[in-house]
Amino acid sequence: MTESFRALVSDMYVNQKLSVKLDLPKNRETILDLFERVRREHPVMEHFKRYKEELALESASGVFPHRWLAIRNNTVRAGEVNGDSLKGAYDLHRRLLEIVPFYLSVSPLDIESQELLYGFDLAAGGNHDAIVHEALFMGTSFGQAFDVPGATPTDCQPMIGLSLGNQIQAVFEVKTRSGAKSESDGSPEPISVYLTIRRRGPVRELREMVDHLSTLVGHGEELLRSRVVPHILLPIRHAIASNA
Prior knowledge:
The protein has one domain (2-243). The protein has helices spanning 2-6, 28-41, 86-103, 128-136, 141-144, 208-243; strands at residues 11-20, 45-50, 55-59, 66-71, 75-81, 111-122, 159-165, 168-175, 191-200. The two termini are 27 Å apart. The longest helix has 36 residues, at 208-243. By secondary structure, the chain is α+β, with helices and mostly antiparallel strands. The protein contains six helices and nine strands; from the N terminus they run αβαββββαβααβββα. The chain is globular and about 60 Å long.
């Protein structure tokens, strides 16, 4: 599956977010012990950074797959960018679910939500909103409602949420950035497509989170195969090509 994505997008990433109700500890010893444990298991994650609202452990810039772990007041987030396989990202997320709660004193009752995000960047210049409108709405009743002569789309960022049952939700989102430039090389920022699979609610035991991750993965991969690739990624890619 990863190889097929590479033919469609410029970058892809698989992120995980664990949200808790109470503030997480931020003392020096706790964070450094956790980050050192992660670094020993993933030696490329050796750069400790402090941002305005988070502490992060990251791979060096330009190293792929790029991996990162970030801690904020009520969330623990992690991700892998441009990995060789989805399995590599899943292994990282699974291992973090096993060790992070113990270092940060997370209780099963403290769990607010657990989510898995699949992200895809498609390099595109020009008017992103017009591209997305053409790809996803042209010829539909909704699209025709805004087919005003002489008008140009300026904000077309659809987001749809679905309940999949058993406390699990799926959110499909398209993010446009017309006119924005990347800080690294000044090239146009991409159109991004996100699929987020989220489970809300506490757990009975911390070890259940690993099983819940497998459930999120199952839903995610099925929706990628049957919905995201054929009905979102491919149409946007074709619209980008036609507007190049």
